[in-house]
Design goal:
Elements lengths: L19 H29 L6 H21 L3 H23 L8 H15 L1 H25 L4 H103 L3 H28 L7 E4 H13 L6 E6 L6 E4 L1 H18 L4 E9 L5 E8 L6 H6 L17 H11 L3 E6 L5 E10 L10
Parallel strand pairs: 2-4
Antiparallel strand pairs: 1-3, 3-7, 4-5, 5-7, 6-7
Helix pairs in contact: 1-2, 1-4, 2-3, 3-4, 3-5, 4-5, 4-6, 5-6, 6-7, 6-9, 8-9, 9-11
Length: 453
């Protein structure tokens, strides 16, 4: 992305302020200038005694008053006006000082008189600095004219005045040039930093939006996997519904042919069958609903046991479904709907790998350290080659024909398990079936389950 052009670094400061650091510098500079004039006037008074020129305390008072006025403006939040007042007030005072005492008398104080003025002018902008430097050159010319008029017929004195004037002019121009380039460089650096900061903020916002989009995409993938499993479960569930409906019809027919207690028994049987059918349909609707992930503490063994009837619906009678929890007492932190979706997806894959029948087993076992629990899902199907095994967790990788698989089941499984702090390991060989180990962090049994709170 191209960087937008920088604004003019020599432009004057905004009316709203000079910036936090510049304001602090201006405040300290005003205090130091006022303190210097008070101390210097006091020192001259002690050294000269009654013979002190009255202009000395008068000029000191004027300088202090200017600094105090500027400080009041600064504390009122008008730092630009304070800086402008300082520049506009210092120039007449310096002109009065050099016009009264001359250039030679101010040689020791030139640095302290002119550098603060040029520094504040540089903060206000290039144009202000140029005019301030020109005005200071005029002040030096005025002081040199005062000195030259007192040494009209002394050639050595005139030469000394010319030397002082040349050094003073060179010092003013050099200081103004250095301040201009220094302040300009600092402003350019600050503007570049601000632009980079804005760019980083924009990139951060884009990254947050991308993360949110990926989170939504993952939720959609989970839901897609659920719906794919629902479609494959439909045939098995339809068989149960047909059986339940047949029972209902039989009980209703029996109730119509009988009277008394047998009729009541038949109606009770029909009611029980209807309740079972409602439970199956409600479970199917809960499973297919799109909801945000809600991880909670689950009893690993009890959760897997509860899924056994649903897993049995995936396979036909040629497949033996085995479940071994071995009385494991471990808690895991996982979304129950996602765990159900993962196990069903693995069961569907196993059913497709065992078209002639076989054995499908789910076992739960804790690790020796006690900090994790492993859910092992194993089948005796045709297995996978080494190349397929290495890529089986990649999104959209599938060996099934077009229209029969999305390649998202194992990829989404690995993503959900990783989000819970676990890992997935797949072991398979052609002709020896497939084993999938879901390793999940376990919690101490002292933790309370949601239904126990």
């Amino acid at each position: 992305m191209p960087v937008p052009p920088l604004p003019d670094p020599a432009a004057p400061a905004a009316a709203s302020g000079l910036g936090r650091r510049t304001d602090a510098m201006l405040r300290g500079l005003l205090l130091l200038v006022a303190l210097f004039h008070v101390v210097y006037a006091g020192w001259l008074a002690l050294r000269s005694g009654p013979g002190l020129d009255r202009m000395v305390p008068a000029m000191a008072i004027l300088h202090v008053l200017v600094c105090l006025l500027c400080l009041l403006e600064h504390f009122a939040g008008r730092s630009v006006r304070a800086a402008s007042t300082f520049v506009l007030a210092q120039l007449p005072l310096l002109m009065l000082t050099y016009g009264y005492w001359g250039l030679g008398a101010q040689l020791r104080l030139q640095l302290l008189q002119m550098v603060p003025l040029l520094l504040v002018a540089a903060v206000l902008g290039h144009r202000t600095l140029t005019w301030a430097a020109a005005a200071l050159c005029a002040v030096l010319l005025l002081g040199s004219w005062v000195d030259a008029s007192g040494a009209m017929f002394r050639g050595d004195r005139l030469l000394l005045v010319g030397t002082d004037l040349g050094i003073g002019l060179f010092g003013v121009l050099l200081t103004a040039w250095l301040l201009h380039h220094s302040v300009t460089g600092l402003r350019e650096s600050l503007q570049v930093v601000q632009l980079r900061s804005q760019e980083l903020a924009r990139k951060r916002d884009e990254l947050q939006l991308e993360m949110q989009e990926r989170e939504r995409a993952r939720d959609q993938l989970v839901h897609a996997m659920k719906m794919e499993n629902v479609g494959r479960l439909a045939s098995g569930i339809a068989h149960d519904f047909n059986h339940l409906l047949g029972l209902i019809q039989m009980y209703v027919a029996k109730a119509g042919r009988s009277e008394g207690a047998p009729q009541q028994t038949a109606l009770q049987g029909a009611d029980a069958a209807v309740r079972r059918a409602s439970a199956v349909s409600r479970r199917l609707m809960d499973f297919s609903r799109l909801e945000a992930a809600r991880p909670q503490l689950l009893d690993a063994a009890a959760t897997v046991n509860a899924l056994l009837p649903l897993l049995e619906q995936v396979f036909d009678r040629r497949v033996d479904v085995e479940l071994d929890t071995a009385g494991v007492q471990c808690l895991i932190h996982f979304d129950p709907a996602q765990l159900e979706s993962i196990l069903l997806s693995l069961a569907v894959n196993a059913q497709q790998a065992m078209p002639e029948g076989g054995r499908f087993s789910v076992s739960v076992s804790p690790e020796a350290a006690g900090d994790a629990v492993t859910l092992r899902i194993q089948d005796t199907g045709h297995g996978m080659s080494e190349e397929v095994r290495r890529r089986c967790l990649e999104p959209f990788y599938t060996t099934k024909p077009v229209g029969q698989g999305t390649g998202l089941g194992l990829a989404v499984t690995a993503s959900l398990v990783a989000a819970a702090g676990g890992s997935v390991q797949v072991d398979s060989r052609p002709g020896h079936g497939t084993r999938v180990d879901l390793r999940l962090p376990s919690r101490p049994r002292s933790a309370r389950l949601p239904q126990e709170r």
